[in-house]
């Protein structure tokens, strides 16, 4: 027979075992003596064994009752710990939040976000996957992260996208390069005769630049395709080419001797936002993280909104 053993059942059993009296145990449990006797009788029926040996004057644990008594305290403690753990989740005293983010965003935005979050909710475990946009979308779709901070991608229409900001593109060039002067901005078409160090073809960074070049009827053919921002910065510093990058990506490049200029005609911007699953709600811990992230952007921790003439069409990866 299946035994449905509740915390109340265990407390009632332990009360009788400790007091050796049904009347005293009933008072402790705020039950009538007949109700307590019925509860113990139900337990005995479920276990198929007497738990107490009763006489008109005494109540003693039976052999089966001794076995249950040896485990009842631990069982009750386990139940109470489980209840407390579950209640801790909405109270943000326990849980886990997993994020995915583009490498540039992981370096520029997430550390501050995690520091602020950990200060408020120190018992919540935090994990981060810094990855390109398409893998980030897949991590969300598979439920392996709560949400991702990434570039928009209309190919993932089954997921919700919440825009946060737009990220403008800039040109990085070495001081000794012909484009490494101190001008406020440079036209993209004027950079194309020079060698470019670009992110690889499967990234949104590359696809945004290609789309902007095509507005001038020119194909974009970089001299080097690199996946890591630090390598791009080092190659640009050695005058192996210039690099057209989003401002947030350029922010994490620490190479010396570089000039940074705005790209114009057209200005290139990409949408940055949060991607999450459409079905089901975020956990309380993840929702608190999302709310903090949105406040961080509202507090002008990120670039402003796109200009009307900007190239802002979403692409596949970032």
From TrEMBL:
<keyword id="KW-0238">DNA-binding</keyword>
<dbReference type="InterPro" id="IPR000847">
    <property type="entry name" value="LysR_HTH_N"/>
</dbReference>
<feature type="domain" description="HTH lysR-type">
    <location>
        <begin position="5"/>
        <end position="62"/>
    </location>
</feature>
<keyword id="KW-0804">Transcription</keyword>
<dbReference type="InterPro" id="IPR050950">
    <property type="entry name" value="HTH-type_LysR_regulators"/>
</dbReference>
<dbReference type="InterPro" id="IPR005119">
    <property type="entry name" value="LysR_subst-bd"/>
</dbReference>
<keyword id="KW-0805">Transcription regulation</keyword>
<dbReference type="InterPro" id="IPR036388">
    <property type="entry name" value="WH-like_DNA-bd_sf"/>
</dbReference>
<dbReference type="Pfam" id="PF03466">
    <property type="entry name" value="LysR_substrate"/>
</dbReference>
<dbReference type="Pfam" id="PF00126">
    <property type="entry name" value="HTH_1"/>
</dbReference>
<comment type="similarity">
    <text>Belongs to the LysR transcriptional regulatory family.</text>
</comment>
<dbReference type="InterPro" id="IPR036390">
    <property type="entry name" value="WH_DNA-bd_sf"/>
</dbReference>
<protein>
    <submittedName>
        <fullName>LysR family transcriptional regulator</fullName>
    </submittedName>
</protein>
């Amino acid at each position: 027979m299946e035994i449905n053993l509740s915390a109340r059942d265990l407390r009632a059993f332990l009360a009788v075992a400790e007091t050796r009296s049904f009347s005293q145990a009933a008072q402790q449990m705020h039950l009538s003596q007949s109700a307590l006797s019925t509860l113990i009788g139900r337990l005995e029926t479920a276990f198929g064994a007497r738990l107490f040996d009763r006489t008109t004057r005494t109540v003693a644990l039976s052999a089966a009752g001794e076995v249950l008594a040896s485990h009842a305290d631990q069982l009750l403690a386990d139940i109470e710990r489980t209840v407390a753990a579950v209640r801790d989740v909405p109270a943000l005293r326990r849980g886990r939040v997993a994020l995915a983010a583009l490498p540039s965003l992981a370096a520029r935005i997430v550390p501050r976000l995690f520091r602020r979050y950990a200060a408020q909710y120190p018992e919540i475990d935090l994990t981060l996957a810094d990855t390109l946009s398409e893998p980030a979308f897949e991590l969300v779709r598979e439920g392996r992260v709560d949400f991702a901070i990434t570039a928009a991608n209309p190919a993932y229409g089954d997921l919700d996208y919440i825009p946060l900001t737009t990220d403008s593109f800039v040109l990085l060039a070495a001081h000794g390069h012909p484009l490494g002067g101190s001008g406020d901005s440079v036209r993209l078409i004027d950079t194309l005769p020079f060698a470019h160090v670009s992110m690889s073809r499967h990234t949104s960074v590359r696809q945004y630049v290609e789309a902007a070049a095509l507005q001038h009827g020119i194909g974009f053919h970089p001299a080097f395709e690199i996946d890591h921002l630090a390598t791009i910065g080092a190659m640009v510093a050695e005058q192996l080419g210039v690099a057209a990058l989003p401002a947030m990506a350029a922010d994490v490049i620490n190479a010396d001797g570089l000039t940074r200029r705005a790209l114009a005609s057209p200005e290139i911007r990409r949408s940055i936002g949060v991607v999450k699953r459409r079905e089901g709600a975020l956990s309380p811990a993840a929702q608190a993280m999302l709310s903090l992230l949105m406040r961080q952007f509202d507090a002008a921790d990120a670039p402003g909104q796109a200009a009307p003439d900007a190239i802002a069409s979403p692409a596949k990866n970032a």
